[in-house]
Specification:
Layout (H helix, E strand, L loop, with lengths): L1 H35 L9 H11 L1 H5 L8 H18 L3 H20 L1 H13 L8 H25 L5 E3 L2 E3 L4 E3 L7 H17 L4 H9 L1 H22 L8 H27 L2 H4 L2
Antiparallel strand pairs: 1-2, 2-3
Helix pairs in contact: 1-5, 2-6, 2-8, 4-5, 5-6, 7-10, 8-9, 8-10, 8-11, 10-11
C-alpha cells in the first residue's frame, strides 16, 4: 500500500512538472492580460481561491480512494489536441481553456471518477480567470451599457434633475457623462459571479440554494451599477463635474463592489433562514 502511494505521488509529480513546462508560455500571456485588462484583474485571485476550495473539502477527500481511470488519457489527449489547434489558429481562449480540460483528464487518469467529481467545481472555477473573447464581451457589454443608461436616466429624472439621454451618453445641465464599456457593469458582474461561486461552494446551503445564491450575483451587479451611475450623475449635478472623473470616480467602483457584497451576503442570510419545505431539494 505504501509503495503504491509513493508510485502515485511520483506519477503526479512528473505529470505536474510536464504540465507546468507545457503551459508556462500560455500562462505567461494570461498573467499579462490580467495586468493590462482591468476587466480581468481579478484573475490573480482565482487560482488561490480554487486551491482554498480544494482545501475546504480536505476531510471528504481523505476518505476517497484513488482508482485510476484510463478514460482520463482520452480526455487529456483531447485537451492537448485543442491546445494544438488553438495554437495554430492563434485562438487564445481555446488555448487557455484547454488547461482545464487537461486538468480534468489528468485527475481522472491518476485518481479516478470519485476524485474527479469531488474536484470538478474547483477545476471549473478556474474558468473565471480566463478573459472572455472580445467578440462575446462586446455583444454582452453594449446592451448592458444601454440598459444602465436608460435605467439611470429614469432614476435621475425621478429626483427632479433635468437630463437628456442620447444612446449611452447622458447630458446634464453642466456636464456630459458617457457610459463607456467600463461602466457597463460587466466587469462587476464577472467579479461578483466569481465571488458568489466561491461563496456558494463553501456555504452549508443545500444545492438549490447554492445555485440561487450564485445567480443572485447577476441582478445585484446590474442594480449596483445603476446605483453607481445614478449617484455619479447626481453628485456631478449637485457638487460639480469633477466628481465624475479622477480619483473619486475610481474609488466609487470599490465602494459599490462592497455594497454588492453586502447584498450578496443578505441573499445568503435570507436563504439560510428560509424553511426547508420551500427550497430544499
Amino acid at each position: 500500500m505504501e509503495q503504491k502511494k509513493h508510485l502515485l505521488f511520483l506519477q503526479i509529480s512528473i505529470l505536474a512538472a510536464a504540465f507546468i513546462v507545457l503551459y508556462f508560455p500560455f500562462l505567461q500571456t494570461l498573467v499579462h492580460d490580467w495586468n493590462v485588462n482591468d476587466n480581468f484583474s481579478h484573475g490573480y485571485l482565482i487560482p488561490p481561491i480554487a486551491a482554498f476550495m480544494v482545501w475546504h473539502r480536505k476531510t471528504q477527500l481523505k476518505d476517497v480512494k484513488a482508482q485510476p481511470n484510463l478514460w482520463g488519457l482520452l480526455l487529456t489527449l483531447t485537451g492537448l489536441l485543442q491546445l494544438i489547434v488553438a495554437k495554430i489558429g492563434a485562438e487564445y481562449f481555446l488555448q487557455r481553456t484547454s488547461v482545464i480540460l487537461v486538468l480534468f483528464g489528468l485527475t481522472l487518469f491518476l485518481l479516478g471518477t470519485k476524485w474527479t467529481k469531488k474536484l470538478s467545481v474547483p477545476m471549473l472555477y478556474l474558468l473565471f480567470m480566463i478573459p472572455i473573447p472580445a467578440i462575446l464581451w462586446n455583444q454582452i457589454a453594449f446592451p448592458l451599457q444601454l440598459f444602465a443608461s436608460k435605467s439611470s436616466t429614469f432614476f435621475i429624472q425621478l429626483l427632479g434633475i433635468p437630463i437628456y439621454r442620447e444612446g449611452n451618453i447622458l447630458h446634464l445641465a453642466d456636464t456630459t457623462l458617457q457610459v463607456v464599456d467600463a461602466c457597463s457593469g460587466l466587469r462587476s458582474l464577472t467579479s461578483l459571479l466569481a465571488l458568489s461561486a466561491a461563496f456558494a461552494y463553501i456555504s452549508t446551503l443545500r444545492t438549490l440554494k447554492k445555485w440561487m445564491l450564485f445567480f443572485s450575483a447577476v441582478p445585484i451587479a446590474i442594480a449596483v451599477n445603476i446605483l453607481r451611475l445614478t449617484s455619479t450623475a447626481v453628485l456631478a449635478e449637485w457638487i460639480g463635474p469633477e466628481i465624475a472623473q479622477g480619483f473619486l470616480h475610481e474609488i466609487s467602483g470599490l465602494f459599490i463592489f462592497i455594497i454588492a457584497f453586502i447584498f450578496l451576503y443578505f441573499v445568503y442570510y435570507s436563504l439560510s433562514r428560509v424553511g426547508s419545505s420551500v427550497f430544499n431539494p
